[in-house]
Design goal:
heterodimer, A: alpha+beta, three-stranded antiparallel β-sheet, 3 strands, globular, B: Aspartate Aminotransferase, domain 1, 2 domains, seven-stranded mixed β-sheet, about 15% strand, binds pyridoxal-5'-phosphate, binds FE2/S2 (inorganic) cluster
């Protein structure tokens, strides 16, 4: 609960960045956690191979919300290739750490952006 | 701060603390010693014992002081299993027991005992037919909780004890969530062993009781000195025991009165949530339920997010058992009741107590709908 999370997690939980549905996204990644059933959707807008906007929606725990919020901040402005290299550990590091049992929540964020990029490539006939 | 997690633990009653203080500060003598300063602590233990005996209608000699509900449960399961292993090595428990029963039972399985886990219905009431059918030659013990700490469902204790009697099987009851709230008479109910924990009814943490009916042979669990007639070794937690005794006295005198007010507040909370928030459902038995407990499923939210938002508003609630906090697995109690894992993850528990005020409930009803709305807006579903 509150007392097991870092200040960064609590801050992103209280004030999630880039929250909400995106109109006309170029790609959407829809992920459900096999571990707990929580759900994260990541939306991206891409211009000239750069993620110019990224938004998310989450039905999940505080760590899932904070991880997806942090992820959107990390990948915004990155090229597709750079964004694909982002891992859940990068997210966790920026959040100042997560409790062990909550590591899988950050995976939702990583998988979310990967799926969104996959969706973008399919929609726009880009090669993998 | 608004505290609505009384099933996790309760604040200490001021009168309990007052009663304990001299035993922490002045009367330090070891109650087993023969000199004069041991007299006060020794008498205090006897006084506490009398109060608890009165609370559950046992004889004082049938009570063993322990370090709490967990030790009482462990003592009951291991004590009966080990004493009667020549008669049989089968025990029966319900699927919705607290981890302080489930884990010792699991350990007994590792030691070669057989454990049957009885199903409950959608309200969390044990299936009596399954229980009856599960008893065999080898069965030595049935253990079922009086009331469930997560959803509050109260079990048909008398019916279960009748079944145990017919088959000559011992009956243990984890009454940790019920003692101090419900009227319990171990003799009328035909209970052989019963676990009590002080911190669930305004007493201190780390002290409890195991009632062991005089006819029950029980091997000691904690071994060492001759305290408590060798049934539970270790110098007594005198101040804790005195606190438990005072808590029992207060419960005897006041809990019936308090319960009337608390059930009103609980129902107001429940009705208010149902009125103000769409798509909610109360978990547990509608009537046979602890009067202070409200466990409610709120569709399209995740419990931890709700609880942390409540915490930001200085409101303490929980998602079932305190021991399960930080666990990603949905509650075993809700799952056993046939509730889906998604619904279980969207369920939260408010448990009220005697210090809960009318304004506390108003405040929850003020902020909870907004929290749920915010979280539902965040959800993609
Ligand atoms: C039903 C039940 N049994 C056992 C326990 C364990 O009691 P204690 O915390 O005193 O060890 C609890 C509470 O934690 C409980 O709710
Ligand atoms: S996403 Fe599963 S517990 Fe956080």
């Amino acid at each position: 609960m509150s007392n097991t999370y870092t200040d960064q997690v609590l801050e992103h939980f209280k004030n999630p960045r880039n929250l909400g549905k995106m109109q006309d996204p170029d790609g959407v990644g829809k992920i459900g956690s096999p571990e707990c059933g929580d759900v994260v959707w990541v939306y991206i807008k891409v211009v000239d191979n750069v993620i110019v906007d990224c938004k998310f929606q989450t039905l999940g725990c505080a760590a899932a919300i904070a991880s997806s919020s942090m992820l959107t901040e990390i990948v915004k402005g990155k090229t597709i290739e750079e964004a694909l290299a982002v891992t859940n550990n990068d997210v966790v590091k920026e959040l100042g750490g997560l409790p062990n049992k909550k590591m899988h929540c950050s995976l939702l964020a990583e998988d979310g952006i990967k799926e969104a990029i996959k969706d973008y490539r399919i929609r726009h006939n880009k090669n993998m | 701060m608004i505290y609505l997690d009384y099933n996790a633990t309760t604040p200490l009653d001021g009168r309990v603390l007052d009663k304990m203080m001299p035993y922490l500060r002045d009367y330090y003598g070891n109650p087993s010693a023969i000199y004069k300063i041991a007299k006060k602590p020794k008498e205090a233990i006897a006084w506490a014992c009398d109060n608890i005996a009165e609370l559950i209608s046992s004889s004082p000699a049938e009570l063993i002081f322990t370090s709490g509900g967990t030790e009482s449960n462990n003592t009951a399961l291991f004590g009966v299993a080990f004493s009667h292993k020549d008669k049989g090595k089968h025990i029966i428990i319900s699927k919705i027991e607290h981890s302080a029963i489930l884990e010792p039972a699991k350990f007994l399985e590792e030691l070669g005992f057989k454990v049957t886990y009885i199903d409950v219905d959608n309200y969390g009431v044990i299936e009596l037919n399954r229980l009856r059918d599960s008893i065999c030659e080898d069965t030595v013990l049935v253990s079922v909780m009086y009331a469930n700490n997560e959803v509050g469902t109260v079990q048909p204790i008398k019916e279960i004890s009748d079944i145990c009697r017919q088959h000559g099987v011992y009956f243990h009851v984890d009454a940790v969530a019920a003692v101090g709230k419900l009227d319990i008479n171990v003799k009328e109910l035909g209970i052989d062993l019963l676990s009590i924990s002080a911190h669930k009814f305004y007493g201190p943490k780390g002290v409890g009781v195991l009632y062991v009916g005089e006819a029950v042979a029980l091997s000691s669990f904690i071994r060492g000195g001759h305290q408590q007639d060798g049934r539970r070794a270790g110098t007594e937690n005198v101040a804790g025991i005195v606190g438990l005794g005072q808590a029992a006295k207060i419960a005897l005198e006041e809990s019936a009165r308090d319960s009337k007010r608390i059930v009103g507040l609980r129902d107001k909370l429940e009705e208010g949530i149902k009125k103000k928030i769409s798509d909610v459902k109360v978990n547990g038995h509608p009537l046979k339920r602890l009067y202070n407990t409200c466990n409610i499923y709120i569709n399209h939210v995740e419990s931890e997010s709700v609880l942390m938002n409540l915490d930001l508003e200085e409101i303490c609630a929980s998602a079932g058992s305190a021991c399960a906090t930080g666990n990603t697995n949905p509650s075993h109690v809700l799952l056993a009741m046939g509730i889906s894992s998604v619904a279980a993850r969207g369920s939260i528990r408010f448990s009220l107590g005697k210090f809960t005020k009318d304004q506390d409930i108003d405040r929850v009803l003020d902020v909870l709908p907004g929290i749920v709305k915010k979280l539902r807006q965040m959800s993609p579903l």
